[in-house]
C-alpha cells in the first residue's frame, strides 16, 4: 500500500494475491481431473464490459481456468437468449457461467438468472444464491460486493459496529453490498437516487462504498476525516483516457483514511472474486459427483 494523505488500497496487488491462491486451488482440482471451466455470455457490446472481459480472459488463462466467450447479436430474441443460458447451464463440461452486463433493456436479465444452474452462477444472482447471502451463508456471492468487503479488510478496518454507507442500490452491487456488510454486524445505510440529502448520510460513514455510476459524485466536503472509501464507479467519460470513479479522488484522498483508486481498485479484486467463485463452484460440483471434498 502506498501512502499519501490517505492509504491507497491497491486492488491490483490484492487481486494478484487472491489469484495466486486461486491458481493453487485450480492445480489441486485439475490433479483430480476437475478443471474449472467458465463461460461468459454477452449480448451486444459495451465499453465497460470490453475492459472487464479482457481482464477476465487474461486472469483465467493465468490461473489455469478454461474460459470461453459466447457473444450473441444485440437483436437476439429473449427465447434464443434463454435457450443459450439453459444450454450452457446444462452442459456438464461447464462449471461456471457469467452473464455480462449490461444486456439490452428489452431482455429481462433476472429471468435469465432464474434459468441458470445455481451451482454454476458465479455472480451470485440466482434467487437461491441471493437467499444464501440473505441468510448470511457462504457459497456463491456477488463478486463486486465481495471485492468491496475484501478491500475494507485490507485497510485493517473491523466492520462490527461501524457506520457503513452504500451509495447505489442496484441488484448487482448496492443491494448485495448492503446485506454483506450487514452480515458483518455493521450499521448499514443504503442511499439511492431518491435519498433527500446524500451528504448528510455520507458524512456519517466510517466506511463509504460508492456504486452510483456518476463521475465525481462524492466530494471532499461529503466525507468525514479518516473514512475508508471504496469507489466502485467505473465511468467512461468522453475525452478521458481512462475510466473515472464516482469519487473525486484528488480531493477526497486528502480527507479519507484509506481509498481505492480508479482504475486499479475494485476492478481487479472483482475479477479475482469471479475466479475464486469459479473454483468454489467447481469444487462443489466435483464433490457432488463423488470427486472428493468441496
Ligand atoms: P446501476 O445499475 O446504474 O446502479 C446505480 C445506482 O446508483 C442506482 O441504485 C441509482 O439509483 C443510484 N444512483 C444514481 N445516481 C445517484 C445519485 N446521484 N445519488 C444517489 N444514488 C444514485 O449501476 P451498477 O451496475 O450498480 O454500477 C455502478 C457503478 O459501478 C458503474 O459505474 C459501474 O460501471 C461500476 N461497476 C464497477 C465494477 C467493478 O468491478 N469495478 C463492477 C460493477 C459495476 P436508482 O436506481 O434509484 O436510479
Cα distance spanning the termini: 33 Å
Number of beta strands: 10
Shape designation: globular
Spell out which ligands are present. NADP nicotinamide-adenine-dinucleotide phosphate
Low confidence ranges: none
Structural class by helix and strand composition: alpha/beta
Largest sheet geometry: 7 strands, mixed
- Topology order in helix (H) and strand (E) letters: EEHEHEHEHHHEHEHEEHEH
What's the mean pLDDT score?
95
Strand order of the largest sheet: 1-2-10-9-8-6-7
Question: What's the gist of this structure?
Answer:
With 294 residues, the chain is of the alpha/beta class.
Summary tags:
294 residues, alpha/beta, seven-stranded mixed beta sheet, 10 strands, binds NADP nicotinamide-adenine-dinucleotide phosphate
What would you note in describing this structure?
The protein is of the alpha/beta class. Helices cover 40% and strands 14% of the residues. It has ten helices and ten strands. It has helices at 11-31, 47-63, 78-90, 109-115, 127-134, 143-154, 174-182, 198-202, 249-252, 266-288, and strands spanning 2-3, 7-8, 37-43, 66-72, 96-99, 163-167, 187-191, 207-210, 228-231, 258-259. It has a seven-stranded mixed beta sheet. A three-stranded parallel beta sheet has the order 4-3-5, sandwiched between helices. Strand 6, helix 7 (174-182) and strand 7 form a beta-alpha-beta unit. Helix 6 (143-154) packs across helix 7 (174-182). The longest helix is centred in the C-terminal third of the chain and has 23 residues, at 266-288. It starts with a strand and ends in a 6-residue tail after the last helix. NADP nicotinamide-adenine-dinucleotide phosphate is lined by residues 48, 144, 167-170, 172-174, 191-193, 195, 198, 211-214, 217, 232-235, 266-267, 270.
Amino acid at each position: 500500500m502506498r501512502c499519501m494523505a490517505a492509504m491507497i488500497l491497491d486492488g491490483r496487488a490484492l487481486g494478484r494475491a487472491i489469484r495466486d491462491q486461486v491458481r493453487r486451488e485450480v492445480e489441486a482440482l485439475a490433479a483430480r481431473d476437475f478443471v474449472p471451466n467458465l463461460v461468459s455470455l454477452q449480448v451486444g457490446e459495451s465499453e465497460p464490459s470490453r475492459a472487464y472481459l479482457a481482464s477476465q480472459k487474461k486472469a483465467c488463462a493465468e490461473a489455469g481456468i478454461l474460459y470461453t466467450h459466447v457473444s450473441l447479436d444485440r437483436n437476439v430474441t429473449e427465447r434464443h437468449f434463454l435457450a443459450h443460458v439453459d444450454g450452457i447451464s446444462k452442459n456438464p463440461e461447464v462449471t461456471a457461467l457469467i452473464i455480462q452486463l449490461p444486456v439490452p433493456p428489452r431482455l429481462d436479465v433476472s429471468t435469465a438468472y432464474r434459468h441458470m444452474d445455481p451451482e454454476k452462477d458465479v455472480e451470485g444472482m440466482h434467487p437461491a444464491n441471493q437467499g444464501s447471502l440473505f441468510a448470511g451463508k457462504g457459497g456463491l456471492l456477488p463478486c463486486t460486493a465481495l471485492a468491496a468487503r475484501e478491500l475494507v479488510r485490507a485497510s485493517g478496518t473491523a466492520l462490527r459496529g461501524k457506520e457503513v454507507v452504500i451509495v447505489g442500490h442496484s441488484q448487482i452491487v448496492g443491494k448485495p453490498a448492503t446485506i454483506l456488510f450487514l452480515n458483518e454486524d455493521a450499521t448499514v445505510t443504503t442511499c439511492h437516487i431518491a435519498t433527500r440529502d446524500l451528504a448528510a448520510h455520507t458524512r456519517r460513514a466510517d466506511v463509504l462504498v460508492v456504486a452510483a455510476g456518476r463521475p465525481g459524485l462524492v466530494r471532499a466536503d461529503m466525507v468525514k476525516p479518516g473514512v475508508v472509501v471504496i469507489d466502485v464507479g467505473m465511468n467512461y467519460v468522453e475525452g478521458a483516457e481512462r475510466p473515472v470513479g464516482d469519487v473525486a479522488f484528488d480531493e477526497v484522498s486528502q480527507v479519507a483514511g484509506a481509498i481505492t483508486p480508479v482504475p486499479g481498485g475494485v476492478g481487479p479484486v472483482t475479477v479475482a472474486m469471479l475466479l475464486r467463485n469459479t473454483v468454489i463452484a467447481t469444487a462443489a460440483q466435483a464433490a457432488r459427483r463423488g470427486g472428493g471434498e468441496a
